[in-house]
Structures are given as C-alpha cells and as structure tokens.
C-alpha cells in the first residue's frame, strides 16, 4: 500500500512538471497566416514555441501553400544591420524563412503576389550548426542569408515554415550591429615614415572578417566597421594590419570599448623584419618554470609569428629553445629546451604552417641571458624560445 502511494505521488509530480514545461512554450497555433502574424517586437529572444500547425502542402521555394507556417511581425529596435538566428527545438527539423518589409495593406499585397522577399533561405538544415538558419553579416554559413540594413521603427514580416511532418517548435534570437568608422595611421617605428598596409576588422566570436581595406600612401586609414551595440553582449573584435616585410600588428576591442568610443585615432607602429633574430620587434616566447606552457605575456608574440607565416609563405625560421639551468647543461636541459622549441613548432603546424618551413634546436642553458640569475624575473628571461629568421 505504501509503494502504491509513492507511485501515485511520483505520477502527480511528473504531471505537474509536464504541465509547467508545456506552459513555458509560446503558443503559435493561430499564427499560420499573414493576417494573424504575431508581433514579437519587444523580444531579443523569442520562444521556444509550440509546434507549428499544418496548413496545406509545400511548393518548392514558395510560401503560397506551406506545410507548417508561422508568421511574425516586428519593428526594428535599432538602426544598423539586422541579424537573427532561427533555432529549431529539434535539431533535425528543416526551417525555411522569408523576410519582408512591411507596408500599408501588406497582407493584402502579399496574398495578391505584389510583395517580394528581401531575405530568405530554403537550404536543407546544416548538421554542423544544428539546423540553425537566419541572417548573419556575411551569410557565409550554410542556411544563412546576408545581413539587412534597417532603420529604427521600420516594420518587417517574417514567415517561417517547418517542412517536417512531425517537427517541433523554434526560438528566434535578434541581433543588431551598428556602423562606425575606425580611423588611424601607420608608421615605421624606427623612422616614423608612413607605411601602406592591409587592414582587416574581424569578429573574434565567429572569426568572420567583415572589412578588408588598405591605408593610403600617407599611412592613414578608415575602416567602416560593424559591431554589436547591445550593452549586455561583449564579443571582441580585432583590428589588424599587415604590410610586406613588416611584422603584423593587431588591437582588440570589446563592445564596451566601442560604445565608449575607444576606437578613434588608432596608431600602429610597425617593425620591419630582418634576418637572424628579431627579439625586439617580434618579442621572445617565454615559458613557465620546468614546463612547456608559454607565459600569458608571450601569447601576443606567438600569435604574431603565426600570422606572419600565414600571410607570407616565404618566411622560414629556426626555433631555438633555451632553459634556465646551471652550467654545464645537462641532458635534461637539452631535452626540455628542444621540447619547448617543438611545442612552438607544433602550434604553428597545427594552424596550417608547413613543417618544412620550421627548424628546431635545443640549446639547453648554454646561451643564457643571465648566467647567474638573482631573481625570478631573470630566471624567466632564460626560459625562452627565440626565433631566427633565415628567409622572408
């Protein structure tokens, strides 16, 4: 009798939880036509929804007779570029969409085929992005169209269709990117002469390069950049420059930096590459004690080296590893120094650099910066990999 009571109690809990869960889903059972479009203007993230109801049959690349349609309308909340993600509750579902600019008597015009879609996608769901679709800035991802430039207050209609018979609902996430100008100047750090270079602006969240431009002969540049203007979202953006026979340079900006205007009058002082060592220009790659882990401060040099070798396929180098040891070097010193050089090589190779362009050497503690280090700073200066440029 006691076990029966427990079972009934568990069933009641399950029923209550199931009911609570179903209440979390937004009911879209009456949104299958343009006239019944649901206004979702106030949402940054809308959903998850119930399953769209079936209405007629689907014709290819047409919403005239969709299977499981859902209609929304919304007002642009900001001026800039509109982006959104349509996220299926079931990653195997296939959602298509069409985006329209609103107008007086929109639905009447739509029903009489007088309206053309501004954006849309009918591709099958992409397995690698879990069936997401929508519009991104570049539109490079499978299932995505390119961003739409909008003005605050404009009205739009969004029509969705899940082509699967037994599909589930969806969520929609809206994003806005603002446009702004990044201005700056490039010069040679040694003589302050102007340098012409290629400049890129990249979103580090998705590695999407949104701008590629070039400085003029005076070294000045203007980048028509885009970034999220949502104060609650802080992705990072990278402004990078590269000139032939110079080390690449870059600066990182957060959304907070951009909202505060910390992107004006940007200066880059570029260092020329020379044969042999470029310790002052590139930086030295330092390591933690008795480890193959580079220090946080050395990430910048490591990344610049990789970028240089990606941009200039003529560059060939020798990576020379060093340890902080007691003279004469032991076998352990030589082994550790070689492994340090190999770890930098492995990082470069893992990121697409041909092994043939990289030679490694382990010099143990035979070439210390401080032969009798007196503190941790001096010991740290001995734990390093130096880059010897043999060709560029």
Describe this structure in words.
There is one protein chain. The chain is of the alpha+beta class. The chain folds into three domains: 23-168, Jelly Rolls (Sandwich); 177-270, Immunoglobulin-like, CATH 2.60.40; 276-391, OmpA-like domain (60s Ribosomal Protein L30, Chain: A, 2-Layer Sandwich), CATH 3.30.1330. It contains seven helices and 22 strands. Strands 2, 4, 7, 8, 9, 11, 14 and 17 form an eight-stranded mixed β-sheet that branches. The chain has a five-stranded mixed β-sheet with strand order 1-3-10-5-6, with no helix packed on it. Strands 18, 19, 20, 21 and 22 form a five-stranded mixed β-sheet that branches. The longest helix is centred in the N-terminal third of the chain and has 23 residues, at 2-24. The radius of gyration is 29 Å and the shape is elongated. The model is unreliable at 1-22 (pLDDT under 50).
Q: Could you give a quick summary of the protein structure above?
A:
The protein contains 7 helices and 22 strands. By secondary structure, the protein is of the alpha+beta class.
Mean pLDDT: 88
The CATH level-2 architecture of the largest domain is identified as Sandwich
Helix content: 10-25%
Ranges where pLDDT stays below 50 over 5 or more residues in a row are 1-22
Shape category: elongated
What is the chain-wise order of helices and strands?
HEEEEEHEEEEEEEEEEEHEEHEHEHEHE
The top level CATH class name of the largest domain:
Mainly Beta
As a percent range, the share of strand residues is 25-35%
Characterize the main sheet.
Answer: 8 strands, mixed
Number of strands: 22
Number of domains: 3
Radius of gyration: 29 Å
Number of helical segments? Answer: 7
- What is the fold named in CATH at topology level of the largest domain? Jelly Rolls
Q: Termini separation (Å)? A: 85 Å
Q: What class would the helix/strand composition place it in?
A: alpha+beta
């Amino acid at each position: 009798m006691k076990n029966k009571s427990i079972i009934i109690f568990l069933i009641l809990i399950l029923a209550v939880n199931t009911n609570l869960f179903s209440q979390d889903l937004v009911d879209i059972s009456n949104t299958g036509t343009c006239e019944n479009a649901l206004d979702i203007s106030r949402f940054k993230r809308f959903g998850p929804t119930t399953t769209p109801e079936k209405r007629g049959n689907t014709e290819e690349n047409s919403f005239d007779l969709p299977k499981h349609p859902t209609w929304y309308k919304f007002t642009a909340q900001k001026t800039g570029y509109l982006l959104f993600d349509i996220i299926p509750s079931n990653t195997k579902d296939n959602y298509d969409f069409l985006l329209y600019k609103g107008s007086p008597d929109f639905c009447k015009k739509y029903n009489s085929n007088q309206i053309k879609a501004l954006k849309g996608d009918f591709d099958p769901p992409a397995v690698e992005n879990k069936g997401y679709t929508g519009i991104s800035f570049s539109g490079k991802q499978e299932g995505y169209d390119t961003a739409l430039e909008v003005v605050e207050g404009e009205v739009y209609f969004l029509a969705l269709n899940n082509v699967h018979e037994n599909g589930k609902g969806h969520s929609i996430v809206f994003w806005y990117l603002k446009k702004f100008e990044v201005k700056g100047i490039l010069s040679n750090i040694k003589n302050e002469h102007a340098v012409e270079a290629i400049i890129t602006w990249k979103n580090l969240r998705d590695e999407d390069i949104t701008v590629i431009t070039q400085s003029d002969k005076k070294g000045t540049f203007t980048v028509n950049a885009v970034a999220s203007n949502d104060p609650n979202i802080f992705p990072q953006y990278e402004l990078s420059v590269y000139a032939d026979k110079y080390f690449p340079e870059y600066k990182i900006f957060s959304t907070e930096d951009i909202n505060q205007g910390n992107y004006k009058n940007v200066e880059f002082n570029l260092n020329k590459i020379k044969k042999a060592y470029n310790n002052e220009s590139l930086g030295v790659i330092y390591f933690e004690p008795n480890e193959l882990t580079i220090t946080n401060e050395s990430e910048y040099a490591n990344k610049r080296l990789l970028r240089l070798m990606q941009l200039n396929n003529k560059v060939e180098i020798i990576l020379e590893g060093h340890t902080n040891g007691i003279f004469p070097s032991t076998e352990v010193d030589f082994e550790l120094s070689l492994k340090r050089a190999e770890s930098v090589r492995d990082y470069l190779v893992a990121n697409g650099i041909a092994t043939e362009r990289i030679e490694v050497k382990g010099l143990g503690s035979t070439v210390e910066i401080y032969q009798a280090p007196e503190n941790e700073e001096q010991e740290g200066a001995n734990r390093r990999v130096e880059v010897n440029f043999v060709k560029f």
